[in-house]
Amino acid sequence: MKSESAPRRAQFFRGNRLNFALALGASLLTAGLNLLIARVLQQMIDAVSGVPGAPGLGELALDIGLIFLLIAAVKALEYYAKPRFLERAMRQYKDRAFELLTQKSIAAFSGEDSAVYLSAFSNDAASVERGCLDGLFSLASNAVLALGALVMMLAYSPLLTVISCAFFALPIAASLAAGDRVERAERTVSDLNGALTASLRDSLGGFSVIKSFKAEAAMAALFARGNAGVERAKCRKRRLVTFIGALGSLAGVTAQLGVFFVGAWLALSGRGITPGVLIVFITLTAYVITPISEFPEQLAAMKAGLALTGKLSAALSANVRGGGALPARLGQGIELRHVSFGYEPGCEVLHDITASFRPGECCAVVGASGSGKSTLLRLLMASHADYSGEIRLGECELREIKSESLYDLVSVIEQDVFLFNASIRDNITMFSPFPEAEVERAIELSGLSALVAERGGDYLCGENGSGLSGGEGQRVSIARSLLRRSEVLLVDEATAALDAATAYQVTDSILSLEGMTRILVTHSLDAALLRRCDRILALRGGRIVESGTFDELMSCRGYFYSLYTVSQ
């Protein structure tokens, strides 16, 4: 965990060390100024009390003026450096984390809960900033303040310092009693926040379904349970922090009163304790006790923040796909050799699939619901690696291929097309630079020319493509594949949610593509379109039961014939 999360935390300081040094210097100088103020306070009290050798009021006035200027300079430095450090640290940390997230393969990401990442980039990020980064300055400042106060106390009265240290045992004991409880509480809050985020995401994603089935009350109750769990966990954490703070405060007050009592006794006994020294001892005692009493909470918050960075690092490092590269072109097509697969152990969805797809071939995959059609396409897209048998792209086995290399040659069009709330052109290019002629070619071949002519390439598609029809969204997906010049196009029920006329037009556009291997999973058995396919694979119960052209399969009067007849 530590070796994985350390590179992530290094992003806090990359190109940011000067800002960190200046901000840390401002925090340490603030602690030093507090000690200087305590020293001037002691001299002022001794001067007012008439202690021999005390400085005059004029000298003290100059000291106060100097302190004022130093405070202004230090706070100006902090005003400049600390916000800059925190802004750049968190920006780089989240940017790097998101970059690593996008490097995960489809197989790795599909088996994970996206709520972990949603929580990591929102609630957890705030805890990391507050505990790890901001807390680091407080810890450093408090450490300098406490050590400096001890040195000054020793200089004023070694005897009273030794007696004071005995009282310091109380807040130290309170610190040790805290242990790792706050860290565990913070992690619990993070986990429950992730679950609540997942529930909220599902509720918003299925809003129309919830309304149509009148499940508002049930979903509200489900959200309320998750929300109550989060708030109860946060309440327990707050109580723990309050309890630890109360222990520290109680121990601190006891120590201060004890030091004041002993100091007063020493002053009355003529042990060289002046009124100024006695008062400043109380101040210095607070400078020692306050950091000690705050230490458990600050350390726990820092450890909790580090634990959250470790949690994100573990998620980002899990199941990252490796492997080699594919050749620039697939000379030998795609071949499946005795492939079997199941989502659960002992429950196969595909059984002993053997098939080949020649370069440039158009193949339709048909079958009843649950026959394994979409699962077959997911395997070709490397969504799962735990299959038996072989899937070869050219001369390479799929599990040995890098994701980046695979996605250079393979594109997928699914029923639900993801569209950004950006222009049509940006959704086609996916925000990457392409020659204008290439973009225009993709628009024309995908059948988007009329839409672009009517609305313009800068027309905003809306959130998740709400400004486009289903068919227009599918054509944008086709244009993406054309623009990338993918050699293999996997089409998974792309027209399932479209009306018959639009579905025909979209499928016609796909079948008209040349020089591209096309594998279409379809529920629509239109004779005119299926006749244009080079081959049809009929799946039944996870097995290929028939293979051939439309006319060949119809003449056999087998399973495909039955499917087609029923569909008509």
Rg: 35 Å
Strand count, sense and barrel status of the largest sheet are: 6 strands, mixed
CATH architecture of the largest domain: Up-down Bundle
Low-confidence stretches: none
Secondary structure tally: strands: 10
Q: Biggest sheet: strands side by side, in what order?
A: 6-7-8-3-9-10
Q: What is the overall number of helices? A: 21
Compute the average pLDDT. Answer: 81
Distance between the termini: 58 Å
CATH topology of the largest domain: ABC transporter transmembrane region fold
Walkthrough of the structure:
- The chain has helices spanning 2-10, 17-49, 57-102, 106-110, 114-120, 123-156, 158-178, 181-205, 207-212, 216-268, 275-317, 373-380, 403-409, 424-429, 436-445, 449-455, 470-484, 500-511, 527-530, 550-556, 559-567; strands spanning 334-341, 350-357, 362-367, 388-393, 396-397, 410-414, 488-492, 517-521, 535-540, 543-548.
- The protein is an alpha/beta fold and 568 residues long.
- A hairpin with a 2-residue loop joins strand 9 and strand 10.
- Strands 6-7-8-3-9-10 form a 6-stranded mixed beta sheet, sandwiched between helices. It has a 4-stranded antiparallel beta sheet with strand order 2-1-4-5, covered by helices on one side.
Please give a handful of descriptors for the protein shown.
elongated, alpha/beta, 2 domains, 6-stranded mixed β-sheet, 568 residues, Rossmann fold, ABC transporter transmembrane region fold, 10 strands
